[in-house]
Design goal:
alpha+beta, 104 residues, three-stranded antiparallel β-sheet, Ribosomal Protein L30, Chain: A
């Protein structure tokens, strides 16, 4: 039976592994297209990525100017969930909105 206290009454501390690795983060990228209305893109960014109006507008305009823009940096599971929901919502409204996920 393991104990934190040895026979002399000394308490031992558990060893801490100094090599704990931070989780890998992933970038969600918005890609520009010529068919999805700007207002709809802003709506999606606000609804699925919790962006405010100004931030959503800046992301949308950056994608429009540069061909793509960074939406958010998240864990893989959260990035996949939010992106899947956003793209499903766009398809439901018949828009070809496109996003991708890449390792940071």
């Amino acid at each position: 039976m393991a104990s934190d206290e040895d026979q002399l009454g000394t308490i031992t501390k558990p060893k801490v592994d100094p090599k704990i690795k931070k989780p890998t983060l992933f970038k969600v990228i918005l890609h520009n297209d010529d068919f999805t209305p700007r207002d709809f893109v802003i709506e999606v960014l606000k609804k699925f990525f919790n962006k405010n109006s100004d931030s959503a507008s800046m992301i949308m305009y950056a994608a429009h100017r540069n061909g793509h823009s960074l939406v958010d940096v998240l864990s893989l599971e959260v990035a996949e969930m939010k992106t899947t929901k956003a793209l499903s919502y766009a398809r439901k409204h018949l828009y070809p909105l496109n996003m991708s996920i890449e390792e940071e």
